Amino acid sequence: MTITVLLYFFIYAFLGWCCEVCFAALKEGKFVNRGFLNGPLCPIYGFGVLAVVFLLQPFKENFFVLFLGSVLITSIIELVAGFVLEKMFHQKWWDYADKPFNIGGYVCPLFSLMWGVACLVVVDRIHPLIAKVVNFIPEIIAIILLAVIIILFASDLIATVKIILKLNKKLERIDELSAIIKKTSNEIGENLATKTIDLVNKKDAIEDKIDKKKKLLEEDWATQKEARREVSEHHEPGVGDIKQAYRELLEASPFGQKRLLRAFPALKSTQHKEALEKIKADKLKNTESVDIIEVESTN
After folding, report:
1. What is the maximum alpha-carbon separation in the chain?
2. Distance (Å, rounded) from C-alpha 246 to C-alpha 173?
3. Which of 13, 19, 99, 271 lies most in the core, judged by the most C-beta atoms within 10 Å?
4. Residue 220: what pLDDT?
């Protein structure tokens, strides 16, 4: 029984991934490896369909109850999965905030109803066929096949988690560099502003003494010039180094991170929102550059 259930889970996780790829192809006109994992599996589909098939099996002849139950079960699974993933990785993988009557951006009536219709088809038509195929597989072959799939699945899951953790560290580093650049720029601006204000104050104090005024202005101008030189020597090289490191960090994006950004275009970070948007903008710019080069090469 356990072997059969696990096979069902991976089959529906694979079919769910296929549906996501087809939907993305229709929407964007190209292949996008959708899903949380690198491999062709979307576990949330496996959990969702299994829950519907086993919990609503007694009501499979009553389409109305089956539909409502499917909507409720799949919505709860999607809500819990979205909430847990966000709390674990501090990122929101999908967001229905722009859809009416959504709950926290995790679920919305439109997609819940689509889940309900899909589950009707699965329970009534697809699952009986899959059950026959699974029952036809000899037990020893099923065990070997399942062992291979579980090993690949576990390896993929570990690799994906590592990629996400590295992405979070990258976002944190970008935010740190942004803060350093802002602080250094503020120090430069405050230094120049202070010198300018001092110059104006001294000018007002010596209006009645032209000669003395001229001398003090010359001294203040020399002081301001020296201050600018000191700022240039001490701060600008440092700002340049920081900005260079900042640019390199933005441009560095391992394969796994690029795939996640393509797979989840609505991905949001709860802790490093601005840093993630900068990475997305940089990825979009690089993609446009590649497209231009390809067009020029074709011509």
Report:
1. 106
2. 9
3. 13
4. 64
pLDDT at 290 over 50: no
Are 151 and 212 within 8 A, CB to CB?
Answer: no
Asked whether residue 278 carries a pLDDT value surpassing 70, the answer given is: no
Token digits of residue 82: 């979205």
Look at residue 243 and tell me if it is in a domain: yes
Residue 149 lies in a domain: no
- Look at residue 192 and tell me whether its pLDDT is greater than 60: yes
Asked, for residue 162, whether it belongs to a domain, the answer is no
Q: Which residue has the higher pLDDT, 132 or 182?
A: 132
Residue 31 lies in a domain: yes
For tokens 């006109």, name the residue: 29
By the 8 A CB rule, do 253 and 159 touch?
no
Note down the domain range covering 62: 2-137
How far apart, in whole angstroms, are the C-alpha atoms of residue 63 and residue 68? 9
- At residue 138, the pLDDT reads 92
Is residue 10 located within the same domain as residue 131? yes
Residue with more model confidence, 228 or 53: 53
CA distance 45 to 118: 11
